[in-house]
Amino acid sequence: MDNTRSNSGRPGLVVLIGSVREGRFGPVVAEWFARQARAHGRFEVEVVDLADHDVPTELPAVSPKYAGDDYPRPAGMAGLTAALERADAFAVVTPEYNHSYPASLKAAVDWHFTQWTAKPAAFVSYGGAAGGRHAVLHLENVLTELHAVTIRDGLAFPDCFTGWQDGAPLDARAAGHAKTLLDRLTWWADALRTARRTSPYPA
After folding, report:
1. DSSP state string for 132-171
2. CA 55 to the chain's CA centroid
3. Are strands 149-150 and 120-126 parallel, antiparallel or unpaired?
4. DSSP tag of 23
5. Which residue in 84, 95, 156, 157 sits closest to 121, CA to CA?
6. 7 pLDDT exceeds 80?
């Protein structure tokens, strides 16, 4: 994955692969969406795969909300934390497991707090008949609790194993829907980045 970042001044977008399951389809979806985002041209795009990081489910007693930089994260999580910290926006790529999102993604969310705060998050989901929409509904509630701003316009890919070919969705409308998502995510990323630089987010 080419995650090279430049000093263009554009907001940084982390495309986060939430599944670590064997045989997962997430990297295919994430790479397609990252290509759409790079072609869109308004973001510096970084693909972050949770499978590349140490994200245990056992958490310290103290909350990251209050511990701040002193939160005792595993050394193997440092790259993930740094990527979330420097991001100005997120596109969370998630499947749907039992009408919700993966435990790996919940653990990654729970190990962090300020890294999500006052930043916009969009969702790219995939799965069976529902296309991962149940997972997104749950994620919207969780990330709102962390003071992220969730984006209404998302992408959902039902029947992903039959609806894709050669690394791209067969639905010709998908690229247009991705552009709508990225247009609105750009607006929020610019607005919230300016706001964070102008005034600290209220604790």
Report:
1. THHHHHHHHHHHHHTT-EE-S--EEESSTTTSEETTEES-
2. 15
3. parallel
4. T
5. 84
6. no
Answer for the pair 46, 15: CB distance below 8 angstroms, yes or no: yes
| Residue 169: strand, helix, or coil | strand
Q: What is the total residue count of the chain?
A: 203
Q: 65-70: which pairs have CB atoms within 8 A and are 24 or more residues apart?
A: 65/113, 65/114, 68/114
Instruction: Report the predicted TM-score, pTM, of the whole model to 2 decimal places.
Output: 0.94
**Phi and psi, residue 120, nearest 5°:** -85, 145
The Cα 36–Cα 43 span in angstroms is: 11
pLDDT, position 2: 36
Would you tell me how many other CB atoms lie within 10 Å of the CB of residue 118? 17
Longest dimension (CA), the chain: 48
CA atoms within 13 A on the CB side of 52: 12
- Please compute the mean of the pLDDT values over residues 158-185 and round it to a whole number: 97
State which amino acid sits at residue 75: A
Burial of 202 (0-12, 13-18, 19+ CB in 10 A): exposed
Number of H helices, E strands in the chain: 6, 8
**107: part of which helix (H) or strand (E)?**
helix 103-110
Q: Looking at 11-20, 44-53, 62-71, which range is the least confident one?
A: 62-71
Do residues 121 and 152 touch, judged by C-beta distance below 8 A? no
